[in-house]
Amino acid sequence: MNSAAPSEEEVLRRLESFGKKIANLVLSGKEPYIEIPVRSLSNTVWDPVNRILKLGPRKARRDFFSLRESKKFMQTLLMLSIIIRARREGDYPTIRDLYYTGKHTIVYKDHLGRNRKEETWDTQTESDSVIRDIEVATGLLREHMGIMHDAKGKIVGNMIIRSKGYDIDLSRMGSGAYAIPPNPDRLEIVKVEAEYVLVVEKDAIFERLNEEEYWRRENCILITGKGQPDRSTRRMVRRLWEEYNLPVYVLTDCDSYGFYIYSVYRSGSISLSYESERLATPGARFIGVAVTDIDEYKIPRNYIIKATDTDLKRAKELLSYPWFKSKAWREQLKLFLRRKEKVEIEALSGHGFKFLSHNYLPEKIESKTWIE
Amino acid sequence: MNSAAPSEEEVLRRLESFGKKIANLVLSGKEPYIEIPVRSLSNTVWDPVNRILKLGPRKARRDFFSLRESKKFMQTLLMLSIIIRARREGDYPTIRDLYYTGKHTIVYKDHLGRNRKEETWDTQTESDSVIRDIEVATGLLREHMGIMHDAKGKIVGNMIIRSKGYDIDLSRMGSGAYAIPPNPDRLEIVKVEAEYVLVVEKDAIFERLNEEEYWRRENCILITGKGQPDRSTRRMVRRLWEEYNLPVYVLTDCDSYGFYIYSVYRSGSISLSYESERLATPGARFIGVAVTDIDEYKIPRNYIIKATDTDLKRAKELLSYPWFKSKAWREQLKLFLRRKEKVEIEALSGHGFKFLSHNYLPEKIESKTWIE
Q: Is the pLDDT of residue A311 over 50?
């Protein structure tokens, strides 16, 4: 078991002690409150030493006896009690299950004796937000709490993992792949015999590289998060980098969206900044497709697409982020804004279907012409 | 190898003979043309005996010397030549690769000697359409032709498959799953020890049922196509039904979208009607969530969602489809239109997290209260 993942008992203990702290306040006649780190953009900071987006030090206090906060207080305790029940009974609810299980109408009389009604929550946005609060307050990821969600990552390569007592050899998946589970921390990585990790933005490119067994020929691990990666794909990449010191290369389309996807793998995202220390891979390198590749690799003129206004706006935003401040990235982004052109990974097929896997990728890795 | 899948040699032979037929017309001085089954809605028919959507008998002739058709003629031959080249060289291009590889500007002089330009194709819609034409004309699926695309299906359960020489035991995937490859016809199903197939619309529900090993306890195969299923997930379901006579149950949300997803598994889709004979599973049963389940299973009032106008419009369309004409389905759809209410699978969690897997599903299968 990965050392970063707390045991089932530890998870339950931490959740219960969070609840007990509040119960003790009540039992000792004090006004109950919860302290929760603030998850807003204003409390998201760039950590230049660790090169990740992190949650700042600000905490918010939720007082039960504050009119403005009592609803959030109630929601937090309601969600906490549902999650604790699920852990005690060994259940694996989805975030949608949690939303439904907690959703009900509270009927009460107000201080003037009038009948009043209040919904515990109206939308899943509200219940999801409380789950995040419990994550930051307890330091437990939802994955640790056995909460299920969609998982879209795939992985193949020369490595063996162990899950639920089974050894799974990711070099023996044939034309298919191993679908990364929602909680990759519960996977034990038994053996890795690979020289690097190649993260591919697009699933179709992953399928192609897998079908021709690029990973076997190049001795690497091949992963895709299918566009904007989910938490489990990012966690898996992080673990391979952290626990096995493997270089990580990210391959995306040459456009603002692709550059951003790379940065999410490398530095984390604003909305999940509180998890960067577990999800981000500060050593990840952008292997392409770079703006300079358009000339470098003589991409045919009619494969080049005009950048949209959204692309350009997004690129300007990227330029302002501290994690895109390196000289290399500033050059790429400025060139992108000047040329107003983008290309897709598939544009490399203009030089033949084998060009990507036999020339472009190995050459870039060999010549170390990635971007950081 | 599955008997339905033609060998690599057979695929190349069929593609080449398609091309040779046209070459022979030219060589013998005749006007070249191609005959291609029409893929429009007007040529899509409901086959009540086999209970699938099928392509009708109409064929269209594309003459090289017809002004209106010569561009399509050129596109078809261009795409055919690219696919043949990929097969000869053992490449696995994506549909996007094929689009790029064929994309170029033809420069020519017209009959008045003026310089003219013509793009081979402008958008991927055009090149994809030609791929479909080649599929119907040759009777080969794109999967057979080694064309890659996104594949989103996952599968676990008591079965062993063989791919690229490896035996893969789908009961030993741990918390993860086997990601179905783009071409499941190249998987050999070695052994199946299961009583039925459960197809789950939603990935998060799949993850939950997998985490608690529902498939092991109930001895079934668990599959998800993540919403609207892709071709490879549908093909996998079809093979398990056809080759192993397994009953197939489909679990979706109780709304028009869910009902439609069920029908795509069972009867095929209009846009892919030419592949129904390989992709549809006419024996698939809808296990829920049914409109009658709202009362039957006492779904709490505040878990019920108001149906949108789109839901209602879609439900009316479904009522008009021949494949929703059974008494049971008419009742469900009419009730849906009358109640104007929908519920999600997760609403069953109102009765506890275990209710779906320990009560709802086993009871429905045991009591045979599915809908067909």
A: yes
B180 near A CB under 8 A: yes
Q: Do B172 and A182 touch (CB under 8 A)?
A: no
| DSSP classification of residue A168 | E
Q: B241: closest CA among B52, B22, B24? A: B52
d(CA A16, CA B61): 73
Report pLDDT digits (tens) over B92-147. 999 999 999 999 889 989 889 999 998 999 999 999 999 999 999 998 989 899 99
Rounded-to-integer distance, Cα A9 and Cα A15, Å: 10
Of A81, A94, A163, A200, which to mutate for an interface test with B (greatest number of B Cβ within 10 Å)? A94
| Interface membership of A188 toward B (CB under 8 Å) | no
Query: Is residue A63 pLDDT above 60, yes or no?
Result: yes
ipTM of the complex: 0.91
Angle ∠(A7,A9,A11) on CA atoms, nearest 5: 70
User: How far, in Å, CA of B177 to CA of B148, rounded?
Assistant: 21
In this complex, the residue of B90, B204, B302 whose CB is nearest that of residue A149 is: B204
Cβ contact, residue pair B94, A347, below 8 Å:
no
* Domain extent listing, chain B: 8-138, 154-366
Please, what sign has the CA dihedral across residues B75, B77, B78, B82? Answer: positive
A161 vs B contacts (CB less than 8 Å): 174
The H or E element spanning position B255 is none
Task: Determine contact: B1 vs chain A, CB below 8 A.
Answer: no
pTM score over 0.80: yes
Q: Which residues pair with A305 in a beta bridge?
A: A342
Residues contacting residue A296 through CB under 8 Å, at least 6 positions apart: A290
CATH topology of domain B154-366: Dna Topoisomerase Vi A Subunit; Chain: A, domain 2 (3.40.1360)
Does B174 contact A151 at a Cβ distance shorter than 8 Å?
no
> Strands (DSSP E) along chain A, which ranges?
33-37, 44-47, 52-55, 59-63, 105-109, 115-119, 154-157, 159-163, 166-169, 177-179, 188-192, 196-200, 220-224, 248-251, 285-288, 305-306, 341-342
Instruction: Say yes or no: B178 contacts chain A, CB-CB below 8 A.
Output: yes
- Angle at alpha carbon of residue B127, lines to B125 and B128, rounded to 5°: 65
Chain B residues with CB under 8 Å of A84 CB are: none
Per the CB < 8 A criterion, the answer to whether A343 and A299 are in contact is yes
In one letter, which amino acid is B245? N
Is domain A8-138 annotated with CATH 1.10.10.10? yes
What HEC string does A226-265 produce? CCCCCHHHHHHHHHHHHHHCCCEEEECCECHHHHHHHHHH
For residues A20 and A81, give the distance between their C-alpha atoms in angstroms, rounded to a whole number. 11
Residues of A in contact with B204 (CB under 8 A): 94-96, 148-150
Which residue of chain A comes nearest to B226, CA vs CA? A150
* A-chain residue closest to B172, CA distance: A166
pLDDT tier, B230 (very low <50, low <70, confident <90, very high otherwise):
very high
> Pseudo-torsion of CA B291, B295, B300, B305, nearest 10°?
30
Go through B214-241 and write b for each residue having 16 or more CB atoms within 10 A of its CB, e for each that does not: bbeebebbbbbbbeebbbbbbbbbbbbb
Minimal CA separation from A98 to chain B, in Å: 8
Helix orientation angle between A256-267 and A231-244, rounded to the nearest 10 degrees: 60
Q: Rounded to 5 degrees, what are φ and ψ at A128?
A: -60, -40
Measured CA distances, A347 to A5, A212, A338, B341 (Å): 41, 19, 20, 47
- pLDDT tens profile B300-321: 888 999 999 999 999 999 999 9
